[in-house]
Amino acid sequence: MTALFTNFENLPPEWRAGFGALLGLIIGSYLATLALRWPSGEGASQGRSRCNGCGRALGWRELIPLLSYAMRRGRCGHCGARIDPVHPVAELAAALIGALSLALHPGFEGLTGAIFGWILLVLAILDIRHFWLPDRLTLPLAALGIGASWLIGMPSLVNALIGALAGFGLLFVINSAYRALRGRDGLGSGDSKMLAAIGAWLGWQMLPFILLLASGTGLLAVLYGALRGRATKAGDRLPFGAFLAVAAWPLWLGRDALQNYFHAL
C-alpha cells in the first residue's frame, strides 16, 4: 500500500488531478443520490436509479455523470420530467474536490482531504435542502479527522482533539447565550457537531478563520437573495452548516500556505 501511494505521488500533478476528477464524478453521482433519497428514508443503494417523474429505471447511458444531464438537457428522456439539478452540481463539485485535493496534496493526505470535502458536500446539500446535519455524518467526520491527524500528523493529534472540543463548545456557548436572550435557539445542535468535526480536521487555530469565512459566505448569500427579490427576515433560518462547509474545505486545501505565512510573521 505504501508503494502504491509512493508511485502515485510521483505522477505529474495533472495526472493526479485527472484521476481525482474521474473518481470525484463517480462519487459525486452517488452523493447526489444519497442526499436526495436519505431524507425520505431511502438508501442510495436501495434499488436502481430511476426517474422521479415516471419511476422508470435508468439505463447505463443515463447514469454517466454530467454528460447524461447535458445530453438530455436536464430532463428525463422518457417522460420529460425535470432532473433535479443537485445531480450535476454535486458531480461537478465532487470532481473539483477530487482534482484539487490530489493535485495539490498527493498521496494519502490528498485522499483524506478529498474524503473530507466529499462528506462536507453531502452535509451542505442536506442543510440547504432540509436544514439537517445528521449525526451519522458529522460524528464519523470528526472521528475521521482525529484519525487523519494521528496518521498524517497535521494538525497534531492534540491540536485536533482541542479543535473538536473548542469547535463544539464555541457554538454551544453562542447558542446558549442566544437562547437565554431570545427564548429560542439560534443554531441547531448539528452546527456545533459539524464545527467540532471541522476543528478536528483543521485544528483549533483555524476556527476563527472558519467562522469568519462562514459568516461572510452567509452574508453574501443573504445579499444575493435580496437582489433576487427574496429578502431574508429576522426569523428566517439559514443553512449555517453549508456556510461552514464552504469555508472549511478551501482552508484545508490551502492550510500549508496559511501556516507558512503565519510562521513568517
UniProtKB/TrEMBL annotation:
Residue ranges constituting the Prepilin peptidase A24 N-terminal domain according to the UniProt record: 22-101
EC number annotated for this UniProt entry: 2.1.1.-, 3.4.23.43
Membrane-traversing stretches: 15-36, 111-131, 160-181, 201-226, 238-255
GO cellular component: plasma membrane
Main subcellular localisation: membrane
Protein localization: Cell inner membrane; Cell membrane
Record keywords: Cell inner membrane, Cell membrane, Hydrolase, Membrane, Methyltransferase, Multifunctional enzyme, Protease, Transferase, Transmembrane, Transmembrane helix
The Prepilin type IV endopeptidase peptidase domain, residue ranges: 115-221
Reactions accelerated catalytically: Typically cleaves a -Gly-|-Phe- bond to release an N-terminal, basic peptide of 5-8 residues from type IV prepilin, and then N-methylates the new N-terminal amino group, the methyl donor being S-adenosyl-L-methionine
The UniProt record lists the keyword Transmembrane: yes
GO biological process entries: methylation; signal peptide processing
Pfam family, any one: A24_N_bact
Membrane topology, record value: Multi-pass membrane protein
GO molecular function, one term: methyltransferase activity
Function: Plays an essential role in type IV pili and type II pseudopili formation by proteolytically removing the leader sequence from substrate proteins and subsequently monomethylating the alpha-amino group of the newly exposed N-terminal phenylalanine.
Similarity section: Belongs to the peptidase A24 family.
Protein name (Swiss-Prot/TrEMBL): Prepilin leader peptidase/N-methyltransferase
